[in-house]
């Protein structure tokens, strides 16, 4: 990742288009968390970027609540990009999103991160700003240093995207997000229903629900790591016979 400066303020979708305008250097981009004073500027940007109309309460929450990871990229004292993600318990997800993780993680301690918005001002797109913001989020949630209060309990980062937003889909797939599910009529935009996709990036050992192939692969790997398939089978069989004998 290119170098950048970082400072803290007091107190869905990705929009990517080709641009022939001048680009900024990432070395001159500063990162800071959103604060209440950013509300009007952020609302103007989101109205320009996204087809969805967010309520006033949403802007108040992302600029003040600790529940959100709301990071801004600033260039020449102006916000040129931002990423907003909500950290929430896995068990409180909506039904359509509950299947992004294996049942092994169905615990009150498991957290997930939901990317609500990721956007960049038109004249600064294709400069690496969106990638930088996404990388910082991933590093915060899955880096080698424990990040309180989330620690390493976040097992997945996911998002919803319009099926017609090919640029965004390519952006996420290039960064190893996996297509998880198709969501028919998920969006309502200007009175019309639009289809969506769910994309997931797994962190901290999280993974999708396993199929038969995954279980077979796991058993085979465990067997061979223990010295070979036959010794492993014999060991399991001997344990079962011992238990049966003592009964």
Automatic annotation (TrEMBL):
CDD domains, per database record: NAT_SF (cd04301)
Listed PROSITE patterns: GNAT
A Pfam cross-reference name: Acetyltransf_1
Keyword 4Fe-4S (UniProt): no
Record GO terms (molecular function): histone acetyltransferase activity; protein N-terminal-methionine acetyltransferase activity
InterPro entries given in the database record: Acyl_CoA_acyltransferase (IPR016181), GNAT_dom (IPR000182), NAA60-like (IPR045141)
UniProt keyword list: Acyltransferase, Chromatin regulator, Chromosome partition, Transferase
N-acetyltransferase domain boundaries: 29-215
A GO cellular component entry from the record: Golgi membrane
TM region(s), chain numbering: none
EC number annotated for this UniProt entry: 2.3.1.259, 2.3.1.48
GO biological process: chromosome segregation
Catalytic function, reaction form: L-lysyl-[protein] + acetyl-CoA = N(6)-acetyl-L-lysyl-[protein] + CoA + H(+); N-terminal L-methionyl-[transmembrane protein] + acetyl-CoA = N-terminal N(alpha)-acetyl-L-methionyl-[transmembrane protein] + CoA + H(+)
Keyword Acyltransferase recorded: yes
Family: Belongs to the acetyltransferase family. NAA60 subfamily.
Protein name: N-alpha-acetyltransferase 60
